[in-house]
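Q: A small favour: would you put together sequence and structure tokens for a protein?
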Amino acid sequence: MEFLRANTTRRIKVTVPGPFTMSQQVQNDHYPDRASLAMDYAVAVNQEVKALFEAGADVVQLDEPWLQAHADDAREFGVPAINKALEGVIGTTGLHLCFGYAAVVKNKASEYAFLAELDESAVDLVSIEAAQPDLDMSVLAKLPSKTMVVGVIDLEDAAVEPPEAVAAKVREALKYRPPEQLMLAPDCGMKYLPRDVAFGKLQAMVRGVELVRSELR
């Protein structure tokens, strides 16, 4: 959901596993190192991303949660693998990294071990969690070239947030990112919530954004 411009046009967004995360998850019996493996995965991902845009996708997102979990490797070859996966791609691209599903991972870290480095990547949008880990929003200033998709809904807590609580997170994000480079989303792991709770949280997110939008007019 873009922050300022209300848009009722239906858009198609597709997510695919990113090359770095896949290189960390598989058993490697062939490549000399995981960097080489990631770069070959990137070639395959590149073909998939291009095919999705050709099929009509408006946004294609790489899911790369292991950038955070394996920050040392990510600093070595994460961005080159991501850029290889997006080489020659025409269309809006995103990347999501997180601390893991809220229903599975408790006591999340309060900061990302790997994030600012993504300002050198080819992606347009960078999607992060901020609600459950109570992230210091000043980190948004470290990615000046990116539109940030900021999680403002805590998915570990089954209680539906008041819209004003969401609005407070949005106001904090706006201290470090201009409205045209800010999008809002839930944190990672909504699939584990009951449908009515998930729907209520999405309603709270929209209403919280509307509160802040009205203040900016």
Notes: Residues 195-216 form the longest helix (22 residues). Helices lie at 19-25, 34-54, 66-69, 71-85, 163-174, 195-216. The chain has two domains: 8-94, 98-217.
